[in-house]
Design goal:
9 helices; disordered N terminus; 3-stranded antiparallel sheet; alpha/beta; 5-stranded mixed sheet; single chain; 8 strands
Length: 209
């Protein structure tokens, strides 16, 4: 089946019958844990995520697997394809992530480069790895993107050129952009000056007001 036909049938909101037909004719489908990975020809891969549900619902009836799949088929494709927000400080690849996933919960620190071989990228990731706990204390999530030819949504939003270090606060605002690597302590000290971070520290230690 041509990949273009498959992409059209997966776009937007689909009735379950159309989704099922697309699934049957996909060139490959496999269940991975609680998600379904679909590919068709040379087209993009789409991962559909499902929550594990109890066999019996409140009504007392059994929910069949086909009914669970039907519920997912009525969701927008963008919601299905979005990678769940990772837990912990990372590092994680930017592909499949959006900055809105971390709003008011994390401080994204995004590292860009045009290739993983960039000496600045290598140095930056080494310095972050050396004191990742220091950043975790400040609710940082480290995200990296070294694929300018296949840009993530985060790259398309921020338009970096070459190596770039971008630091966000929890309100989703860019606070700092750096063209050269910073060690974890420098990143942490900068974060400690953010108004939201200061408020957090005062809440934990009211005597410091």
């Amino acid at each position: 089946m041509p990949s273009s036909v498959f992409q059209v049938r997966l776009s937007g909101l689909l009735p379950f019958s159309s989704f099922s037909a697309s699934l049957r004719h996909a060139s490959r489908s496999s269940v991975i844990g609680s998600s379904l990975l679909l590919t068709a020809g040379a087209g993009p891969r789409v991962r559909l995520g499902f929550r594990r549900v109890p066999a019996y619902m409140r009504t007392g009836g059994r929910m069949k697997p086909v009914q669970i799949l039907a519920l997912a088929a009525f969701l927008p494709l963008s919601a299905l394809a979005e990678t769940p927000a990772p837990e912990g400080p990372g590092p994680v690849e930017a592909r499949g992530l959006t900055l809105s996933q971390f709003l008011w919960t994390k401080r994204p620190v995004v590292v860009f480069a045009d290739t993983e071989a960039d000496p600045n990228f290598i140095r930056q990731m080494e310095m972050i790895a050396a004191r990742l706990d220091f950043l975790d204390e400040r609710d940082v999530i480290v995200i990296f993107d070294t694929s300018p030819d296949d840009p993530s949504e985060i790259r398309r939003t921020l338009h970096p050129r070459g190596f770039s270090l971008v630091i966000f606060d929890k309100d989703g605002q860019v606070k700092l952009r750096k063209p050269l690597p910073w060690d974890a302590r420098e990143i942490g000290r900068a974060i400690d000056k953010f108004p939201l971070r200061r408020d957090e520290l005062l809440e934990r230690n009211p005597a410091g007001r």
